[in-house]
């Protein structure tokens, strides 16, 4: 587990724009199940989270259509919440960072780490915007 002071700015990078931190299994299950549309990012301390995933998901919110709910869990910090989120992302293997879109509690779009790593935040944002247009 990472120290709280290390991950604080990485958490705030998302919560400062409206993402709600889910910190336990019940939070994840309840919030995703009760959302008409939601994006859930598994946050991480890695470089591709900082350079690509977080900027991409934040920029994706500049779109006419977007999810009603914005959620995040932090891999390596909120183990129970992250495990619960990953269970909702089956059949995709665990990866962090990753970004999932849910509609009426069902997974409808997924960006795994290999879709994030090595791609620009602009490409990630555009991918998410297209998914929002389709599912939100």
Question: Overview of this structure, please?
Answer:
The structure is a single chain. This protein has 136 residues and is α/β, with parallel strands linked by helices. It has a single domain, classed as Glutaredoxin (3-Layer(aba) Sandwich), CATH 3.40.30.10. The chain is 47% helix and 20% strand. It is built from 6 helices and 5 strands; from the N terminus they run αβαβαβαββαα. It has helices at 4-15, 25-33, 47-60, 79-88, 113-116, 121-135, and strands spanning 20-21, 37-43, 69-74, 98-103, 106-111. A 5-stranded mixed sheet has the order 1-3-2-4-5, sandwiched between helices. Helix 2 (25-33) packs parallel to helix 4. It is globular.
Any chance you could write out the topology, listing elements then pairs?
Blueprint lengths: L3 H12 L4 E2 L3 H9 L3 E7 L3 H14 L8 E6 L4 H10 L9 E6 L2 E6 L1 H4 L4 H15 L1
Parallel strand pairs: 1-3, 2-3
Antiparallel strand pairs: 2-4, 4-5
Helix pairs in contact: 2-4, 3-6
Provide tags for this entry.
136 residues, alpha/beta, Glutaredoxin, globular
Count of the separate structural domains? 1
End-to-end gap: 34 Å
Please, what is the CATH homologous superfamily? Answer: Glutaredoxin
CATH topology: Glutaredoxin
CATH class: Alpha Beta
* Gyration radius, in Å: 13 Å
Number of strands: 5
The H/E string reads HEHEHEHEEHH
Largest sheet: 5 strands, mixed
Mean pLDDT across all amino acids: 95
Helix content: 40-55%
Task: Compute the number of helices.
Answer: 6
Shape: globular
- Portion of residues in beta strands equals 15-25%
**Low-confidence sequence ranges:** none
- The strand line-up of the biggest sheet is 1-3-2-4-5
CATH architecture: 3-Layer(aba) Sandwich
